[in-house]
Amino acid sequence: MCHLCKQPIEVMAEKVEIQRQTVHKECFRCCVCDKYLMPGYCAMDDGLCQIAFLFNYFGCLWFCDKHMMLGSGEKLELLKQKMRNAGAGASIQ
């Protein structure tokens, strides 16, 4: 089972093992820019994962090498903008 999309992972499917979780390679992307991620070149922001509306919308918040170095406030603003652009504005606080 993919930890991100909650769908089954086929035996021969490309997958990534990250923090003892298995995910589809296709699902393992930066939550800001959708860049494909590689273990060791990305990071999760545990603080932002505690914000319910973000976790409910994005799931685990993984960031690429470009976005992982931003402060949590900057990441939050980028994620809110992404949600607005996707039409999820009503759920943004």
List keywords for this structure.
93 residues; two-stranded antiparallel sheet; alpha+beta; globular; single chain
Outline the secondary-structure elements.
Elements: E1 15-18, E2 21-24, E3 42-44, H1 46-49, H2 52-58, E4 62-64, H3 72-85
Antiparallel strand pairs: 1-2, 3-4
Organism: Panagrolaimus davidi
Domain LIM zinc-binding: 1-74
InterPro entries: Znf_LIM
Task: Give a brief rundown of this model.
This protein has 93 residues and is of the alpha+beta class. It has helices spanning 46-49, 52-58, 72-85; strands spanning 15-18, 21-24, 42-44, 62-64.
What do you see in this structure?
With 93 residues, this protein is of the alpha+beta class. The mean pLDDT is 88. 17% of the residues are buried. It is built from 3 helices and 4 strands.
